Amino acid sequence: MQRIRLAFLIACLLTSLPAWLWAEATSARPGVIVLEGRDLPFLHQQTLSHIQIFAFHSTTLTPIPFQIDARDRRGRWVIKAGPRPSQDDQPGRFDPNDAIVFLRRDMGERSPTAAFPAGGWHEVRLGSDETPLGFVYIRVGVKSARPTRPGLVRYDPQQDRVYAEGYSVAFDTPLPSHLAFVDSPGDLGQNLISHIGVDAEVNFLGGLLNIRRTDKDLHARLYGHTQGPVRVIRRARYWFPLPFGLRARGRIDLIFYPDFVEGTALVKLKIPPRFILADGEVSTYFNFLDFGQARLLQADDLPIGEEQSPRWAALQLPTGQTLLLVMRLEGGLQQLVQQTYFSNAGPPHSGQPSFGFHFSNIARLVAGRYRLSAFGILLETTDPEVIQSTAAFFLSPPSASVTPVGGAGHE
């Protein structure tokens, strides 16, 4: 039954993801930087409250908001609050399972050596040395208050709502029932979605057994959340009932940032589908209330080379904005055939347009453990080059290099 489990995970991930980003005019660089603890040995066993991060802006090293999130032994983010919180192996100390998280838009220019006060500093460069995309600086010092910006992102567990700089999301378990763009953080705003659809079908034994499930069959249980100055992680367990009292189930993390949303899940396949003659497909999509006349832009519409299974698609809106969906599939999951699901003429009261993805050829997959991530971004432009470069950043995040600074070798 693992095949319908995979189809279900894809469906839950995309339909649970309120796929939007609100990019302010001053926030032209959506994205997040995650520095893995295993790549930061100089921080191992340091007290978390002593770690500081700065960016060089306007000739000054300025503290920026960041957070440190822990992972458990299975590689999942530690959830600190809610019905089923998880545990950090070394609370209060930085270890290789931890990660430092900050926003791409907060990165600055390269700082000259003279700008550094006394003490050990490390430079983080995003991208190559020839074409860097930004810099930040890490220091371990005395305990100090970290900078925060009111309204970046906040979760209300009683109402199961997320409030961010320019959007709000409300859940009516198991799927979001409300999505809005807002002018002021904390506002609920005017709902934009009329329906979220899922349609998954898996067949076994060459079609002798067929199982079809839709969003009406989906159930969920909230596990909990982690609230930080940069992002909120909301975890829930989702399941579809199957014949003979079985369930297709999995855990989905929805991660809310000030300017975009990420949904992520781990997919574990023990047996290749072809061994049990299994195959299937799934469609998952959003129906909007007011986005008629939107124009679809796909990866294969642009001269970026051959790509049989495009991993992103965008709606260019009559408002001058663009809604961008990006799917990042690891390893063997890239064998799935992915197509854009788009309709601008749905039935009455269904919303226009319908926008999402269709996946097929599950039989291609091989055994393994893979990560599946979906991103939602709203850009304040319809420029194809900006859309393409943003999608490229989320599909293949540039590498970050970390080096000591303040001495020889830093210019």
Entry summary:
The chain is mainly beta.
Rounded to an integer in angstroms, the radius of gyration calculated over CA atoms is 22 Å
Order of helices and strands: HEEEEEEEEEEEEEEEEEEEEEEEEHE
Helix content bin: under 10%
Number of helices: 2
Distance between the termini: 58 Å
- CATH class designation of the largest domain: Mainly Beta
* Poorly predicted residue ranges: 18-27, 304-308, 407-411
Strand order of the largest sheet: 14-15-16-17-24-21-20-19
Structural class: mainly beta
Integer tally of domains:
2
Provide mean pLDDT, rounded: 81
CATH 2nd-level architecture of the largest domain: Distorted Sandwich
CATH topology (fold) name of the largest domain: Beta-galactosidase, Chain A, domain 5
* Biggest sheet layout: 8 strands, antiparallel
Shape: globular
Find the count of extended strands (DSSP E, 2+ residues).
Answer: 25
Write the layout of secondary structure elements.
Elements: H1 2-16, E1 32-36, E2 51-57, E3 60-63, E4 67-69, E5 99-103, E6 121-127, E7 132-140, E8 153-156, E9 161-164, E10 167-172, E11 175-181, E12 193-204, E13 209-214, E14 219-227, E15 232-241, E16 247-256, E17 261-269, E18 279-288, E19 295-298, E20 312-316, E21 322-329, E22 337-343, E23 354-360, E24 368-379, H2 384-395, E25 400-405
Antiparallel strand pairs: 1-5, 2-3, 2-7, 4-5, 6-7, 6-25, 8-9, 9-10, 10-11, 12-13, 12-18, 14-15, 15-16, 16-17, 17-24, 18-23, 19-20, 20-21, 21-24, 22-23
